[in-house]
Amino acid sequence: MNLICIELIVFLSAFLLFQIEPIIAKILLPKFGGSYLVWGACVVFFQATLLLGYLYSHLILKKVSLSRYRYFHLILLFLPLFFFPGKSLPPVNLHYHLPMVIDIFWQLVVSIGLVFFVLSTTSLIFQGWLAASELSERSNPYILYAVSNLGSFAALLTYPLLFEIFFDLDMQLFIWRLAYLVLLVLHFFAIRLLRLSEKNIKEKVGLSYVKNREKVYWLLLGAAGVIMFLSVTNIITSDIAPVPLLWILPLSIYLISFVLNFKRYPWCPRWIKEEFYITVAFSIILFFLIQQRILPTIFEIIGLCLSLFIVCMFCNNSLYQHRPADSRNLTQFYLLISVGSFIGGLLVSWLIPLISTSMIEYLLGLFIISLTLILGRRTKLHLSIYSLRLIVYIVFLVCLWLLAYKQYSVFGFVFIAFILIFIFAELKLRPEAFILSLLAILFLECFAIPTWTAHKYIFKHRNYYGIYKIYDENGKRFLEHGTTIHGAQYLSKARQAEPLMYYHYLTPVGELMTSSLFNFKRIGIIGLGTGTLAAYTSASQYIDFFEIDPDIYIIANSYFSYLKNSRSKINFIFGDARLSLDNVNKQYDLLIIDAFTGDSAPIHLFTVEAMSKYRSYLSRGGIILFHISSRYLDLNPPLYTNAYALKAYICSKSMPELGKADVYPSDWVAVTWDLESFRKLIYQIKFNEAGIKKPIKDFRPWTDKYFNIFTILKLKEFNLKYKEL
Fold it and tell me: Based on the domain organization, do 7 and 76 belong to the same domain?
């Protein structure tokens, strides 16, 4: 009974820990404008607080009497009742004089900082108590680590599939607070019933020594696992299908690998360890194939997830096999894993986007894992002539493949797969050569991919918002962001003023902006891109471009000439539009929302609250125009539902595939509160009033506190090959 109660506590603590993460991030997103940096700052805060909790647990279990600390821990659990969850979350008061990241950190500290810290200590504290108890399971306290990760996995899975669908944020917080009270009750009974062995407590004196080699091993594997799951997340949500929900897959795989390896009866097939070199070869081939975008989306996602699962199983099984023999060192073990995870998170989320122009973190994760293979060996390092030849073969074959097969080739794929797998199998007992081969591929990646890709890129840039690429093709220059083409322009000076692609004269936005039915004197545009829409304006018009990423302005001004050639008066406002609109405080005749980057739709820009704010900045007869072209999301239903909730007139128009290189298919939705403007859109520009594909009754208005991505997914698109959007 004691063990069941302990397992429930550890499970529920981890569940609550991972539930509060998306809840608080969802609360902060609209307050800080929905910037990517909001979630990035939240993730770093979560990792830092988790590390602090592990450090606290390590010191407590090492320095404090376990029997005395039981009651102090109960007091610690009651402290959050004086703040949250005992009270409602404090209101989010922005501090404009502070950098956004610092302000977000402060908001998290004052809102959930204490309760997050307390919950982060639970798993390790109870593992220490279990090791010092009279229970028969005391010899293997690591089973609670599996229970903890299972709780995290359950929270991660149920939040988007259950809580986010059926409950708004207020109800989610209410349920969370009730669950915390249940956790307190369980703690009370567990601490009362838990019997610690005096003999086991006294054994805390004189902990066994852990070699520095082992400490580095734990740290590197902790970092490698996080780097791999974050890199796969980046590839899936940037280069394959930028759908917000897909970040769940890699993190779920990462967590379930802990569960399988640390449970009471660990499960890890022998071939994962013995044939790991083949997995690395497969992962490298898959990485290069994805750059070419020639496989159906679902195959790319399955391949990456399968590779990630095997890699995470290898890492976590290695950690389990090298766990401290003396369970009294378990907190040091977890602390170093946490330090490695924190470092890995910082590298992928904050550092690599500033120093790399590609998803190089994927190969970096494989390289770090290769370093652990040497630390796990007891023999001396030796690099033979044969090993050097194998490295040369690998480099030569990769270069040959990339140069000879610039497009997808079944023969080329089979050839390189067979040879690479054979060579990597030869490296099985040669970790030194294995490390150098991965280092060589890591170096080649910076030069090989531009050689192999279909486009000749003239500019590449990466920052926290993604990877931007510019290339010239068929007399036009294109701006690509992830999987999305953000705009194009003719290279010929005679035709540079012509809007192309989604903004062509034949598209709905082109028809609207060239129509004599409206007098758009002041225009607001959320999303800059290449600045194509500036081509439609005259000297009597004013444009305010709202852009969250300042680097886009530099790109649009340096490589495209729409902004330079425009005769209108243009103003640029950097930062998220929902916040920036309050600072500009102007009335617009036309407000264009064009910030949906392919499929990673910024939900906060079309919630009821957002649309209500836009209305307050519209002039009489003003129109809001949403660009909602997306491969994987059908944004019509929530927009129509929200518009009806706000008693607005709404209509839509799509540009079908015309077979013309200058015109891309696109979808546009217009919203207005003026009947005359609505009639012009319907009867003269031929917008369609019945533009929704699903019954309105199936949808509830999307707000800052409620939205459900699952209801608008285009699942059939995942079976298709990549196509430019």
Answer: yes
Does residue 146 sit in helix, strand or coil?
A: helix
Nearest one of 112, 111, 137, 114 to 126, comparing CA atoms: 137
Cβ atoms 226, 337 nearer than 8 A: no
Name the amino acid, one letter, at 185. V
pLDDT of 237 > 60? The answer is: yes
What is the pLDDT, as a whole number, of residue 616?
Answer: 95
pLDDT at position 445 over 60: yes
CA angle 538-472-531, nearest 5°? Answer: 25
Number of domains within the chain:
3
Q: How many CA atoms lie within 13 A of 97 on its CB side?
A: 0
Q: In this model, does residue 619 exceed pLDDT 80?
A: yes
In a domain, 459, yes or no: no
Tokens matching residue 577: 């539009």
pTM of this structure: 0.89
Residues 535 and 443 in one domain: no
Is residue 153 situated within a structural domain?
yes
In whole angstroms, give the CA distance from residue 51 to residue 343.
Answer: 11
* Residue 64 structure tokens: 């404090």
Residues 6 and 144 in one domain: yes
**In this structure, are 187 and 222 located in the same domain?**
no
Same domain as 200, residue 215: no
Residue with tokens 């897909």: 246
pLDDT-derived band of residue 504, with 50, 70 and 90 as boundaries?
very high
- Joined together, the tokens standing for residue 612 give 């209500």
